[in-house]
Write a structure and sequence with these properties.
The chain is of the alpha+beta class and about 375 residues long. The protein is built from 14 helices and eleven strands. It has helices at about 1-15, 20-40, 40-45, 80-85, 90-95, 100-105, 110-120, 130-140, 140-145, 150-155, 160-170, 175-185, 200, 355-360, and strands at about 190-195, 210-215, 220-230, 230-240, 245, 270-275, 285-290, 310-315, 325-330, 335-340, 345-350. The N and C termini lie far apart (about 80 Å).
Length: about 375
Amino acid sequence: MLFFLISCLSFLLLSHSSSKMKTTFPWIFREFMLLLIQKRKIFTHLFPASENFPPIRRIRFDEIQDKTQGISLLHLPDLALDIILEKLSPVELCQMAGVCSSMREKCTSNHIWEKKLMTQKWGGVLGDSAYAEWQSQIAPPKFLRTEFGLLSALLGLFGLNSGSLKKVKSYSPLHSVRSYYLALESGKFWFPAQVFNRENGHIGFMLSCYDAHLSYDSTTDNFIARYKANGRSMIEEGIDWKRIRAPSVNTPANVLHISDCLYELKPGDHIEIQWRKNKQFPFGWWYGVVGHLDSCNCNEYSCSCHINDTVILEFNQYSPESRWRKAAISRREHREVGDETGGFYGGIRKVSKKEEIEKWEQLWPNCPLQ
């Protein structure tokens, strides 16, 4: 029966291209073997002679106790143990996970690694889109998902069911936060983020940010960015942590952002607006503030700019005489506007969070731009 099952699985894998088999064989083999090991009765049924062997006793770490004290680390309350584990570095956690099965379960739990991922180091540069992209990359190939019923039927011959398969899969290390963290640290996973001041602060890109996919280089503690410009793939290296943030919106870089804040804008508000040189380029985001109309006396008690259809946007990083200093948009009929000379303005988002505003102010140029 075992040879029959292996033959069926081999036929299933060989019926697809060799490139798919290279990526999917480890997954399906691992799931299959885990299920066989999980059900000891299958092994004894296939190999009756194995019942004559003495049982193998696994020694657990929690059985190794200080004979004088009569207590081990795993006898601590869960809260106390979690506090200790949270103090460990990622490398130390991985080392502790190799001590025993109980400690491995503790050291690989998602809540321990989520704190390291989101409250330390990576918290400010990862958004929901990064995790979603990670999940899509490690998901089983489509052809395996469609043939899941066949695999379940084969496993049923041995007393296993699809529920068991799902249970094993849900605890697969590939789907853990720990695996996500290690993929980021190793630089193997290129995650979506936004980079401030393209080309390391080139004068033409000051107080702007662009969408890119980034890979971390642990040897330099910097990042490499990969992005599109004028239809070509571009690379920027040596990007430090201060120049990176999680994507502010879910709008792709080549799509006009839907502005939902136009009727809220008033003088003094901080904003980001999409801008691109021409329609072959993706949008970048540029920092500015809402200004007053030329006809307004700027008195807060008599100002009516907030109810006027025209909104004045000011980019105070530019000198007053610069053509980039001001732009006007319509609240009611706003869409992508501009030309090949002055570029194209797109969607707007209002910036309200103090930390976002402070981030832009930290990047302010030393002298006015022209």
